[in-house]
């Protein structure tokens, strides 16, 4: 459980918290007793006025609920802000104390993870990066719980990373991800310098060719997909070369039917790009959007129909979340409900639903290949190369920063035995 209070704009403080069960109810009850508090759905936090009375009310409520502790001898209820007994400010992560301890408690780890979330949010890293870094950092600290973080060197880091490969048979990508998380911890969270960083060993990434389907295999899987929005989305993956999350995050305004193109916002690496809208999918998409619009209008009539907006657009345009152009192209069939505010809305389809739909179709097809949603992206690029399109065009459609990344598809072209005749066939 933790509660975070920070300045919000000029006249308010934001209050965020994570808790479960009875603690959750106590915190919510304490916040709701503060006059003029408000719930900010776009950011999933509460705000209270940034004045002494509001702060005292909130802290006093938390204290009475047993959620706010003070130093022994400090009478919170009867305290006055004099020189000898001033209110306690919430301080940021003290890296000197935490980094210098030889035994790290769960509270220390939570402080580090809170700081990690703050830094990653400021850098606009993805949620997946946050989840991965949190896992590796927590594990690294726990496995070195009796050691001083400030004195750890390349030796301890190498031992941790190598153990992943030797004992857990982790892939090189997992090793390098763990290493990246540890280096991020030292540089951006603790502000510490690793001793002898040049001695840290990075796992060599194997050169693997991506799995690619033939056109016949692709058509067979399509024939086994359901005729609904799940099947339409999977077809769109192959027809556009988009990643799964890029397709799921599409908004209505991202599809230009007149220009036959789709704009992908904040793709991998926070890059925008344009890709092709397949002509054969225009009519199915238009029919799909007609159904989505009917659902959206029905939601609006019931007082809902708002979707989360990226970055700070919700503050700049408070009503934009209910407009048609910002709606998800592939919304969930059911509305979610916020238990604190009663607000309801729709998020995009969960990726696991699409993955499960495809997996079932692949099993029925009997194709002996490791086929996932990303396989359609590989097949899109390879089939374009086979059709004679230049590598630069394909690079732009895929959103690769370096053409070397796109060049891998030249090695998986369907040339039939690499287009050569074996010596044994000449005998």
UniProtKB/TrEMBL annotation:
It comes from Treponema denticola. Pfam families: Phage_int_SAM_4, Phage_integrase. GO terms for molecular function: DNA binding. Signal peptide: none annotated. GO terms for biological process: DNA integration; DNA recombination. Residues 78-91 have a biased composition (Basic and acidic residues). Belongs to the 'phage' integrase family. Keywords: DNA integration, DNA recombination, DNA-binding. InterPro entries: CB (IPR044068), DNA_brk_join_enz (IPR011010), Integrase-like_cat_sf (IPR013762), Integrase_catalytic (IPR002104), Integrase_integron-type (IPR011946), Integrase_recombinase_N (IPR010998), Integrase_SAM-like_N (IPR004107), Tyrosine_recombinase_XerCD (IPR050090). This is Integron integrase. Residues 78-97 are annotated as: Disordered. The lineage of its organism: Bacteria, Pseudomonadati, Spirochaetota, Spirochaetia, Spirochaetales. Residues 208-425 form the Tyr recombinase domain. Residues 106-190 form the Core-binding (CB) domain.
